[in-house]
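README: folding subset

This subset contains proteins for which both the sequence and a predicted structure token string are available. Records are stored as plain text. Below is the entry for ABC transporter permease (366 residues), shown exactly as it appears on disk.
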Amino acid sequence: MKGLRARVLLPIVLSIAGGVLLFNLIAFAFGQAPAAALRLAFEGTWGTPYGLGQVLFKATPLLFTGLAFEIALRAGLFNIGAEGQLALASLVGALVASRLPASLPMPIALPIALASAAAVGALVAFVPAILRARRGVHEIITAIMVNRIVDAVLPWTFSTVLGSASLRTADIAPGAALPRLDRVAPSLAGSAASFAFPLAVVTVFVGMALLERTRPGREIRWVGLRPEACRAEGIDVERRLLLAMLLSGAIAALAVSSTALGYKGYYELGLGAGAGWSGIAVAMLGRGKAIGIVLAAIFLGTLEQAGLVVNARVPKEAMDVLEATLIVLVAVASRVASRRVPVAKDEPESPNDKPVSTPASEEARS
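--- output ---
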């Protein structure tokens, strides 16, 4: 267990240290005093309650999309369609929430809005999922095409179907809105952090636990490792591929809880854009562990908020370069940590390591 924690935490710690050094170099390159720029970035993120709230807000969608990508990855799939799944699901979820009766209480209205968004996210993921499972068409190609279709459908829906010149939906019903965290933490007043953040954290830990401890979750992993062996053991590989991709799309769609339901109170074109792509980085940095996904999402959320804070002194593009470089640093540090830290016999190095036993024997031990 100690080795496992070291392999998850050590790369993030080393990358944070490298990130601070790289940030200072970027600030110096643009004629800024590194210490002053670093202090400004810290004050705008972890240095004030408002900044902390904004970090949590930025991290919340990444928790959902990071978990979504991890679920698909367990089955050997690359769900790069989370961007389109979240966008279309956000539109439908906000539309459903806006048409609910104003008197409908939260315990009823909120699940309806989230369930409708999750259903649409799964439906969008169904196209690449069924083509991969039944026809062997690579999901990356089909997911890219579906993303492009969604990009075209959304503006058309606003302008033609909804007749909205402002490219936004109507306000959601009060019962479908997630309250802000400042209700329980008044110091966070003014920030966009909502109860979507604890919801996302719980979803990550529960989702990863189900993947590890339930038979369907383990079968998804086995299918990703040895599909032919799974067929020989009688596991329906196609069904597990479909399940993984549909779950991935549904969970990615739940990021609407932070954007439309927990922040704006409506959906507008472009809201939540980029969360699907950043979720890939979160899953990769999280190294298949719930705590790793949470820390990675907060890490990238901190970078996003810091980029906004120092934008007047350091161009946003430079901060994007910093974020990409840090991801590379984490990948390198992860490889170094996996070589230096001993691995226990029964402890897989990563979710993609092949098991030493067959699916049947592993199930018999559980």
